Each structure stands twice: as C-alpha cells, then as structure tokens.
C-alpha cells in the first residue's frame, strides 16, 4: 500500500496546483519582448515622424519614376520592346491584385485614428499630419486615375467590417476629398525654407504643385469625357480648373522658393538639369529622391542611357511638338525627304528648338567621358539586341550626365542622379492649361515663357500653319500650343499617359503605328538592321506586331479593369465600362 | 558565428544566439490487480516548457585587414541588431489502462494543456482519448485455427489532439520597426515604422479528432504479417488560410480558427519472411497508404476559388482544358474570344476549350459555381504512396533494396512564369534546355539557321514580353503532368567475411559493403523536374535542389 500512498500524494498536489485557471508553476503570460504594441506607440511627435517615413518609397513605386517611365506605362511618343498593352488595348483582366491594393490607404487611416493620442502641441506635429494628408491624397489619386469611382475609406477596417462590402463612391466625391486633403496638407506642411530634410521631404510647395496636378487632371477628364461612359453628368469642370489655377498661382506669387533653372546657356541648361546628383539648391526641383551608392540607395538609369537603350526609342510623331528656333512650324515629312539617317538628326538639331537635341542623342554627342572611358554617339543603336536596341532612330539622352561614374558603368547600381518627382515647370504648364480652360486669359510671361526663354526660344505665340495633331475634336490654336509646349517640355517624365487619358486623345494613336526616323541604308551593312521600314523608308518597328496599329478601345481602355475576384467577393462593386 | 563579407565595402558580422529551454515532466504510475486477471495501470503527470531566447549581433564595415576580422580591427560604421522571444506551455495528463487476461485491452487518456501563444480565456484545452483492443486469437474458440492464424487482433480508438503551432502574438496589434528606409533624408537612411497588423480575437487550440479501426493478422508462424488501419480525422477550429475578403481590407489576415477539415485514409502493411535453410533466407515488406482531405466548414459564401471553400478537396488544381495550338489565323478567328487572357493571339498560341460554350474564354466569377472555362484538371496530393523493402541473404552475401513511390499525383508544373518548364519567360531569366527547342515556329528562323519550322511543337510560341508569354502559360491540361513515380531509394550488397577467417587476424566480425542512394527513378515528368520537389522551389516551379545520387563503399570491423 506504500505505492498507493505516494500516488495519492502526487494526485493531491497536482489537484492543488490546478485549482487556479493559471497553474502556479509556470507563468503563461509572455508579452512580446522586442516589439511595440499599438497601445504603447503614438506617444511623441517622433513616433508620428517615424510612421510617416514609411510612405516615402511610394513615390518611386508609382509609375511616375522620373526619366524612364513613359513607354513602359503607355505613350504615343516613345516605344519600348513590344507594343504597349494599354495603347494596344490588349491588357488582360486580372483575377487579383491589378492595382487594387489597399494596404497603404489602411496604414494612412490608422495614422488618422491614432495621431491625436500624442501628447504635444499641434505645432510640433503639424508637419507630420500634413504628410499624412498628402499621402492619403497621393494614394487615392492613384486609385482615382486608374479606376475612376472607388470606395472612399476614412477608417481602417477589420475582418468583420461591413464597409468591406460597400459600393464605389463617385469619382467626384473621391476627387473632391483628395483636393480637401491637399488643402489640409498645404495648411500643415512646412515650406521648403523651413522643412527638416529640404526638398527630400514633403513640403508646402509640393502639396500646391500636386493639387494643381490633380485638379487639372480631374477638370480635363470631366470636360473631355463628358457625355461618354467615363464622364459624370452635372459635374462642372471649371470648379477643378479654378482649383488648379488657384494652387498654381499661389506658388507663382513670389512667396515661395520656386524658380526655373536657367544659367543662361540655352543649349545645355535643360539637359543639365536632369543629370544632377544633388538638387537641394535647384529652385525648380520641389521634391526629389537622393541616391548614395555607399549606403545602398542607387540605380542603373545611366546605364540604360549610355550603354544600352532598355529598348526605348522616341517616335516620329514626337517631332511635330518641336518648332524651329524662330517659333515656326517645321514640315518634318518634307525635311525627311531631303535628309536621312544621321544627316536628318544633325541638320534638324541646328534648326529646331534646342530642347530636341537635349532630349535625343545627335551624332557627335558624348555619351560618357569618365573613368569608364569615352564614348561618342556615332549613330542610333539600330543593330543592337533586346536591351541594346533602339528601334526608331530617336535615342533618348535626357537624364544623362557623361561625367558621372554611372555613365558607361556596368550593372550594379552605379548611377546616383536624383529622381525628380515634382518640378516647378510642371506647375507653370498646369497653370497655363487650367487658366486657358477656365477663362482664356493666361499670363505667359510668368509661366510658359520662362521655359521657352531657358531654351532660347522666342516667347509664346501662335505659329502660322496647319495643326498637325487631330485630337478627334476641335480645339483652339492657343490651347493646342499650350498642350504642345507641355508635351515637349515634360518629355519622358511620366506624364504622357495621363495627358492622353484626360484629354481623351485616342485619336492621336488609335489604329496608327509608331514610326521612327528616315532610315539611311547606306549607313549600315546589309542585314545588320532587322527593323522593318515603311514604304517611305521610315523605321516601322511594329509593322509585324500590329499591322493595323494600336488597338486601343475608347469605350473601355480609359480605365483599368477591377480584378475578377474583387467583383465576386464584393457584390456591390461594379466593373468598369467595357470590361 | 562569424562571417567576413568579401564584397566592397567589406564587413564583419558576429552574432550570438542563446536559447534557454527548460522542460519538466513529473509523473507517477500506480499498478494494481483486482483478482488475478484484472490488471490496472493508472498514471498522472504534469509537464511544462519554458523557453527564453535571445539573439544579439553586430556588423562593422571596413576591415583594416581581412586576415584579422574583428570589430576592433574594422574602422567603419557599426550596426547592431537583436531579437528576443519567450514562450511557455504546461499541462496535466492522466492515463488509465485496463487489461483482462491480455484478451481485452482498454486505455483512457486525457490532457489538459495551456500555452502562452493564446490569450487568457482561450489558453487551455482538454484533449481526451479512448482506445480498445481485442486479441481474438487468445479466445478459446480460436484454438482450432490458431496454428494457421497465429495472431488476430481488432483495434479501435477515438481521440482528440491539440495543436498550438502558430506564431505568437496573433492577438496583439504590433508596430513594425524597420531600419534603412529606401529614401534619403539629409543624406541618411532613417529608421521607420510600419502599420500594426490585424489581430485575431479568440485564437485558440486547433483540435484534431480521430477515429481509427485496425486489424493485425499473423499467419503461418507469423511469417506473413498483415496490418490494416482505417481512420477519419476531423480537424476542428483549424488554423485555416485567409478568408475570402475583399482586398479593401488592406492587410494580411491573421491566423484564425476558421476551418474544419476532414481527412479519411487507410494504411496497409504486409510482410513476408522465410528462412529456407541455413544458407538462404529472404523477406519482403510492403507499406501502402492513402488519404484525402476535404474542407467541410469554411466561411466563403460565394465559393470563391481564391481560398478554401466547403467541399474542396485539398490539392485540387483548377485549370483550362487545352485544345491544342492554333495552326492558322482562320482558326483563331473562328475560335472563342480569348482576349480575357491577352489582346493578341497568333498561330502557335494555345487554343483553350470553351467549356461553358459562351464564346469567351475566361475565369467567370472565379467561383466554384461559375469558374468560367476552368475545371478541376487534377490533384497535387500524392495518392497511394508506397514503400517496398526486399532483402535476401545467401550464404555470406546480403542484398537489400528499398523502393518508394507515389502511384497517383498531378503536378501543374507548367504555370505562368515557370521558366524551368517552358524555357522562355521574358527578356530575363530564361532557362533553355534542349527539350525546350520543341517550341512553335511557323517560319524558317533567319537568325539561327537550322532549327527550321516546327508547327507540331509541344511548347507554344515564345514571346519577349512576359505578359504575352503568360497567356500561353495558364494552368491547363496540356502542361499539367503526371507526377507518379517509383524510385530505388536505397540498395546494398554486403559480404560478411566468415568468422573463422577473420578471427585469425583477431577480428570478431568483418563485413564489406557497397551502398547506393537514389539510384533509379521512373517518372513521366519532364526532364529537369524531380517528382519529390515538382511544384515546389523557392525561385519558381522546379527550381530546387535535386536529391543526390550517392555511392558508398564500406568496411565494418569489430574486435
């Protein structure tokens, strides 16, 4: 019976131990040791600052990554490898993702739900609150631009939130909310002169510039899509044009650190401005990303301008945006009949707006001249393969700086030029266009003429001669000129796709193939160039890919499709027209 | 650990990882008999675990000399990092065994377990189990056939087991703290924090309830042994995948006890041993098993195919049915509209069958009820897995082999961007092998003369544009392969040196052997894929380490 006694003793002690819900021997409360709970956060202004920093990489995650964006997102003025799916109407409907990602909007909403817990004066946190308003606007503008109507969320959601299943809000509500958030951002953000981090940090000037961009986008969208499946009845475009003008004029009134980079060298200033490592003292640049290879933040952009093309090339139709040096229209078809190949580029460079030869390589240009050696551009890379191939003869040099280490350097993130996200020139062009749309009374001397003077061009005037571009609807000669000026000044900076969309300008490229320069066979060995040419001897790179031209469908392709799964999961969502 | 980076700028990293793990298991057993034949065994115990772990490390850049790496001999930036964690469990358990004359066997078990991974209130779980066995061959009425059927046992059991294998702190919203933002402020990369995660209220134990019936038979002096088990396991409160919620949620869903899974399976084991005489004996053993998992409860009212749904068989592969490759422009124009997948279609592209006859190839609503033109085209769960052991001893030689395999399995190895399968992907990361040259070409290649036309190709027309390539690489019948296989996993030939010989040189036993691993594999999978790892791969389908074929020559000596 001794064994039974021991056993009963053990039993008794175990019963005693387990009397409480938590046993006595082992403590099962094990809170995290190296992580901070949401309740312990949101105490100091520093917490808010650290939280807002996470959103800065948004700028280059979006399509507006500066100098290499246009043909990859869609442009009638440049091409990349194969025909762009947006331009060609060949985008598939995604099953999931497809831009319908809401993580960052949730993260911003969490900021708004928590920032008032910080025990500090509003002055000490106002800049961070301004950043939050800006990023909410930025993130929602991406959604508005891509999808039109989208559900507007003020609060972060839980897995059981009914709002998960809400329908889309009208784009008017969304656009007005974005502009409201930008009003707050403008109020709360510090100006460049006082912000910690200078133009690498969001600032009041950038918020004003962005507001002019958003308002112009929405105003022209409502005006030119009116009466189509993409317009909204009862929306007054002028309320947006007026907002765009108001934001731009605020920046233009002399109270802000803004300007146009002009050292008095019209043959070089425009080009030089896109090849700098440090923009902190350039008044024109309002927001940019700094790079420093030694701490692991750098890129390969110069490689793609000096060693290879990344498949990029400009199109012949781009030329008609450039006037001659006296501000007159050039008949480029005729010019091409007399000059071909290198001669075409060289002779053109002498007579055309100097921004042409600061955007494209002209034979004789130095591509790089540094520790990697020296290379002179002798002719376009028409005989390259894949990433080395230029299919049109117009080879981009905008963004290069031949003296920097990244030019001519191999892969490995050797380029350190800054990425520009907002520059004052855009604001001036936004102003001119919005003001013309609003009342036709544009102050050119304080806007477009600043840009033309930098390039050594005569002041704004309406040239004599025929308009080359048919937007598919008639527009005034003055507005035509404003759009032309915008397009050439902002070449390859990521604006073209949105401009085509808000202007409803499919007539510029639908059922047309992008062409290149007039090919000069005598400059090449037989069989060296495999790119097709058309019956007039122009490079015709997509001749076999899209014999009937870009297949853009104007009743569908102006907005993106919502992923199939999302329509299933939320029956209150409706697909965009045509998809 | 200590590591020196060879890259520029070079650096030294040193880190220390310490885990203090305490565990205790206290139990007491009490055995007693009532009369002669009723044997009881009672057990009661307590068990606990406590783990404290800490990781501390540092890195310093710019070593003065790589031959003497240390923090002191480096001159550059210093970085430090750490992590800390802890968890604890405890539980009481008890067991009662009853045995009547070794004829009837019963067992009752119960565990009451707690874990720090769940919040107060959801922390403890009670997991009982019962089992019974009946040795029928011990019964008197079995006597007449006991010489033939030596053993005959029936078994049955029911039980619940708990699983708390989830990351800690799923119930707490935690702020993510990160360093080195990919954006410079005043020339530096600042630290930053990210949004708190979504949390799961009432996260608790996953409970697997199993019912099992078994039979053990021994025949002919136990030379032929057979054992068979059938079971059904229901995993309740399963920590299932994310529920079907709109992406507007804006965050990863936390683990939740949101599913019920039913597993039905069986297992058979057969073995035969025979000793012919002193010089010759042999044995063979076969193990064969199969199971199938079905989701019986999961909140997915639309039956969206993005996640679990009620009635789903785990491993099922939804895909298109392939009609072939387009041979002419006319064929494309007369076929259903495939523009859902891509805008442009050419000869050599895949022709998908219009299963629902609506004239359009698409995914419908991507639900079970409207999957568009997709259907279940296979299942990736390995079925009828087997292992075969064969042994033969003849005089001093021993031969043994072990085979293993799977009799039924499908692998959707041809899926979007599977460059290992298609060869072509996009401008980068192509993986071309000779079999990939069997792609569609309807004209003589100008640049690489010699390949010629190939309109009866297996692979579709390749494109430089990744998205355009993907239109032909949808999961579909043509590129879903049979992944059944049999493999000679292990083989050995051994020679035992006769002891009278070895003992002359003072060695008790000596043998010499040759062993091979992974010697033969029979499978119809495309070259370049291993049946064990097809469908896996960190860098895409099939991109994984293969099993190595190894040979070994050995000598065993004992003195």
User: What radius of gyration of chain A results from the CA coordinates?
Assistant: 28 Å
Order of helices and strands of chain A: HEHHHEHHHHHHHEHEHHEEEHHHHH
Backbone structural class of chain B? mainly beta
**Main sheet properties of chain B:** 16 strands, antiparallel
How far apart the termini of chain B lie comes to 40 Å
Lay out the secondary structure.
The complex is a heterodimer of chains A (579) and B (559).
Chain A: H1 2-17, E1 36-37, H2 45-53, H3 58-61, H4 70-73, E2 78-79, H5 85-88, H6 103-114, H7 122-147, H8 171-188, H9 204-224, H10 237-252, H11 269-273, E3 285-289, H12 303-306, E4 313-314, H13 332-338, H14 341-351, E5 366-370, E6 373-376, E7 419-423, H15 424-439, H16 448-454, H17 477-489, H18 496-502, H19 564-569
Antiparallel strand pairs in A: 2-4, 3-7, 5-6
Helix pairs in contact in A: 2-7, 6-7, 7-8, 8-9, 9-10, 9-15, 9-18, 10-15, 15-17
Chain B: E1 2-5, E2 11-34, E3 38-61, E4 78-100, E5 104-115, E6 124-135, E7 149-163, E8 174-178, E9 192-194, E10 206-219, E11 224-239, E12 257-277, E13 280-298, E14 316-320, E15 322-325, H1 329-334, E16 350-352, E17 374-379, E18 383-394, E19 397-408, E20 410-411, H2 419-422, H3 466-471, E21 481-482, E22 485-497, H4 499-502, E23 509-523, E24 550-558
Would you kindly provide a written description of the structure presented here, covering whatever features stand out?
The complex is a heterodimer of chains A (579) and B (559). By secondary structure, chain A is mainly α. Chain A is built from 19 helices and seven strands. In chain A, the strands form three sheets. Chain A has a two-stranded antiparallel sheet. In chain A, strands 3-7 form a two-stranded antiparallel sheet. Chain A has a two-stranded antiparallel sheet with strand order 5-6. In chain A, a hairpin with a 2-residue loop joins strand 5 and strand 6. Chain B has 559 residues and is mainly beta. Chain B is built from four helices and 24 strands. Classes of the chains: A mainly alpha (579), B mainly beta (559). Chains A and B meet through helix 1, strand 1, helix 2, helix 6 and helix 19 of A and strand 2, strand 3, strand 4, strand 5 and strand 8 of B. Strand 1 (36-37) of chain A pairs antiparallel with strand 8 (174-178) of chain B.
């Amino acid at each position: 019976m001794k064994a039974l006694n021991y056993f009963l003793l053990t039993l008794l002690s175990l019963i005693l131990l387990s009397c409480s819900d938590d046993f006595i021997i082992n403590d099962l409360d094990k809170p995290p040791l190296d992580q901070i709970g949401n309740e312990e956060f949101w105490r100091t202004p520093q917490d808010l600052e650290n939280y807002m920093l996470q959103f800065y990489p948004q700028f280059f995650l979006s399509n507006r990554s500066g100098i290499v964006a246009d043909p990859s997102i869609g442009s009638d003025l440049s091409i990349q490898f194969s025909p762009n799916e947006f331009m060609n109407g060949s985008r598939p409907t995604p099953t999931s993702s497809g831009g319908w990602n809401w993580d960052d909007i949730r993260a911003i909403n969490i900021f708004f739900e928590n920032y008032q817990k910080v025990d500090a004066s509003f002055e000490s946190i106002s800049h961070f609150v301004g950043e939050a308003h800006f990023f909410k606007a930025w993130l929602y503008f991406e959604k508005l631009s891509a999808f039109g109507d989208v559900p507007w969320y003020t609060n972060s959601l839980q897995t059981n939130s009914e709002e998960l299943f809400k329908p889309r809000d009208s784009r008017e509500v969304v656009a007005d909310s974005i502009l409201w958030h930008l009003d707050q951002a403008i109020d709360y953000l510090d100006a460049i002169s006082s912000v910690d981090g200078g133009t690498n940090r969001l600032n009041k000037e950038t918020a004003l510039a962005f507001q002019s961009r958003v308002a112009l986008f929405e105003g022209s969208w409502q005006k030119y899509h009116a009466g189509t499946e993409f317009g909204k009845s009862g929306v007054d475009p002028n309320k947006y044009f007026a907002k765009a003008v108001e934001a731009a004029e605020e920046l233009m009134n002399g109270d802000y650190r803004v300007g146009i980079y002009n050292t008095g060298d019209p043959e070089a200033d425009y080009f030089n401005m896109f090849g700098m490592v440090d923009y902190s003292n350039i008044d024109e640049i309002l927001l940019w990303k700094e790079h420093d290879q030694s701490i692991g933040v750098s890129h390969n952009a110069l490689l793609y301008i000096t060693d290879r093309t990344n498949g990029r090339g400009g199109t012949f139709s781009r030329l008609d945006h450039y006037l001659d040096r006296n501000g007159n229209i050039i008949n480029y078809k005729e010019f091409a009949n007399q000059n071909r190949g290198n001669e075409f580029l060289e002779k053109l460079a002498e007579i055309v707006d100097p921004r042409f030869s600061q955007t494209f390589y002209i034979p004789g240009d130095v591509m790089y001249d540094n520790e990697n050696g020296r290379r002179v551009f002798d002719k376009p890379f028409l005989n390259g393969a894949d990433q080395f191939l230029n299919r049109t003869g117009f080879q981009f040099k905008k963004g290069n700086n031949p003296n920097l280490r990244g030019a001519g350097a191999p892969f490995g993130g050797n380029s350190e030029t800054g990425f520009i996200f907002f520059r004052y020139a855009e604001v001036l062009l936004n102003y001119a266009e919005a003001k013309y749309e609003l009342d036709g009374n544009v102050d050119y001397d304080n806007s477009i003429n600043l840009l033309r003077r930098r390039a050594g061009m005569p002041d704004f005037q309406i040239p004599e001669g025929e308009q080359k571009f048919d937007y598919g609807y008639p527009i005034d000669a003055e507005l035509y000129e404003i759009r032309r000026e915008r397009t050439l000044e902002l070449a390859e900076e990521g604006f073209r796709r949105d401009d085509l969309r808000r202007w409803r300008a499919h007539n510029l490229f639908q059922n047309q193939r992008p062409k290149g320069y007039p090919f000069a066979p005598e400059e090449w060995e037989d069989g060296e160039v495999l790119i097709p040419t058309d019956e007039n001897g122009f490079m015709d790179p997509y001749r076999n890919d899209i014999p009937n031209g870009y297949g853009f469908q104007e009743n569908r392709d102006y907005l993106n499709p919502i992923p199939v799964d999302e329509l299933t999961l939320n029956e209150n969502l409706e697909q965009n027209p045509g998809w | 650990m200590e590591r020196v980076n060879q890259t520029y700028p070079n650096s030294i990293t040193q880190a220390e990882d310490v885990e203090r793990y305490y565990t205790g298991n206290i139990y007491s057993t009490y055995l007693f008999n009532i009369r002669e034949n009723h044997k009881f065994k009672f057990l009661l115990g307590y068990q606990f675990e406590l783990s404290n772990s800490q990781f501390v490390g540092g890195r310093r850049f710019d070593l003065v000399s790589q031959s003497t790496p240390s923090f002191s001999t480096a001159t550059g930036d210093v970085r430090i990092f750490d992590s800390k964690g802890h968890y604890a469990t405890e539980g009481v358990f008890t067991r009662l065994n009853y045995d009547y004359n070794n004829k009837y066997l019963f067992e009752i078990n119960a565990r009451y377990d707690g874990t720090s991974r769940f919040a107060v209130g959801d922390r403890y779980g009670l997991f009982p189990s019962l089992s019974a066995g009946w040795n029928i061959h011990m019964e008197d009425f079995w006597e007449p056939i006991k010489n033939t059927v030596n053993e005959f046992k029936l078994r049955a059991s029911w039980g619940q087991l708990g699983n708390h294998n989830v990351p800690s702190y799923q119930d707490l919203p935690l702020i993510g703290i990160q360093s080195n933002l990919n954006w410079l402020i005043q020339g530096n990369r600042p630290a930053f924090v990210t949004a708190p995660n979504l949390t799961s209220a009432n996260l608790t134990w996953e409970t697997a309830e199993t019912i099992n019936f078994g039979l053990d038979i021994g025949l002919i002096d136990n030379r032929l042994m057979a054992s068979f088990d059938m079971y059904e396991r229901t995993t309740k409160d399963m920590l299932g995948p994310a529920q079907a919620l709109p992406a507007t949620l804006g965050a990863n869903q936390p683990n939740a006890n949101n599913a019920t899974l039913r597993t039905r399976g069986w297992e058979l084991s057969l073995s035969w041993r025979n000793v012919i005489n002193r010089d010759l004996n042999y044995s063979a053993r076969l193990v064969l098993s199969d199971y199938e998992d079905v989701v019986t409860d999961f909140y997915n009212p639309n039956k969206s195919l993005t996640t679990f749904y009620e009635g789903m068989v785990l491993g099922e592969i939804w895909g298109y049915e392939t009609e072939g490759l387009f041979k002419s422009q006319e064929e494309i124009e007369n076929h259903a509209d495939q523009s859902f997948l891509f805008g442009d279609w050419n000869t050599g592209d895949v022709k998908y069958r219009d299963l629902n006859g609506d004239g359009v190839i698409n995914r419908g609503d991507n639900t079970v009820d409207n999957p568009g033109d997709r259907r279940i085209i296979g299942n990736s769960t390995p079925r009828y897995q087997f292992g075969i052991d064969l042994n033969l001893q003849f005089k001093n030689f021993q031969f043994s082999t072990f085979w293993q395999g799977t009799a039924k399995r499908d692998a959707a190895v041809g899926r979007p961007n599977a460059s290992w399968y298609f060869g072509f992907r996009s401008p980068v990361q192509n993986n071309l092998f000779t079999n990939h040259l069997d792609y569609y070409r309807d004209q003589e290649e100008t640049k690489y003369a010699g390949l010629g036309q190939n309109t009866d190709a297996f692979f579709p027309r390749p494109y430089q544009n990744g998205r355009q390539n993907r239109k032909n690489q949808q999961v579909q019948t043509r590129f879903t392969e049979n992944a059944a296989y049999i493999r000679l996993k292990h083989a050995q030939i051994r020679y035992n040196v006769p002891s009278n010989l070895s003992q002359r040189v003072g060695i008790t036993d000596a043998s010499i052997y040759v062993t091979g691993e992974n010697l033969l594999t029979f499978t119809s999978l495309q070259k370049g894929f291993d049946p064990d790892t097809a469908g896996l791969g960190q860098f895409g389908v099939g991109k994984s380490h293969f099993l190595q074929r190894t040979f070994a020559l050995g000598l065993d000596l004992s003195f």
